[in-house]
Amino acid sequence: MARGGNPVFAGNKNFKASSAYSGQSRSFSGETGAGMTSAQLQDLYNAPPAGPAQTGRMTYDDVIIKTVGTLALVLVGAAAGWIFPILTLPGMLVGLILGLVNAFKREPSPALILLYAVFEGAFLGGLSGFLEGLYPGIVVQAVIGSLSVFAVTLLLFKSGKVRATPKSMKIFMIALGGYALFSLINLGLMVFNVTSSPWGIRSMDIPGTSIPFGVVLGLLAVGLAAFSLVMDFTSIQQGVTGGIPAKYSWTAAFGLTVTLVWLYVEILRLLAILRGNN
After folding, report:
1. Is residue 6 classed as helix, strand or coil in its secondary structure?
2. Cα gap 7→102, rounded to integer Å
3. Cβ 69 vs Cβ 209: under 8 Å
4. Quick one: pLDDT at residue 19?
């Protein structure tokens, strides 16, 4: 399985390729004949086979429905954050805390996942409203960009042209670690006023060019988020194939939401740096 990327899936053993639930239906079917008459066995044999939904296993429909519902609450929170910018900071802090709690919980909590969606949405709404005031139309551009990356990544995954191989996973983890370290250093420089640039080092031009560091780093981050989507799709596919319980569709929906939020923020920041440099 593509483990080690999104902590929502990486820390949950149920999304392994060889799930402990994959053999349950077979072992159960071998026990159903005990104590039954020949007529009852014949009726059972003639009955249509039970699908994943009837046996309480996770399906793609479960994941889609819960993901759409979670994203809908993100939009509700975003509307509140847009109208009331004072909710931006609380939304960021509470969203971060709930995100970490949900990411490392062994069992999914629908209530906490939906609360995360609302607070994270409030943060996104406040941030989006602020940048929209500076660069009109940037939010629509960021939304279209995010949906485009998601759609292309999903199509490439379904066609089999993109896969989370062990080699690509190693490259991803190295790149992600380096990007995370840079982000922490850049944040520290901004907090302690070492740099007055609005985006820190990202706003500075690459020596000898007029291209900001943030453009190159932004493209790298979008690529990392897109590959994280590939790992999310892989984990969900293996979860469905392994026949894990339906409740883990909440985990899958949360994982996808986290990755999509990251993708949107990276594209929004990249666009802001590009437009601010004009």
Report:
1. coil
2. 10
3. no
4. 53
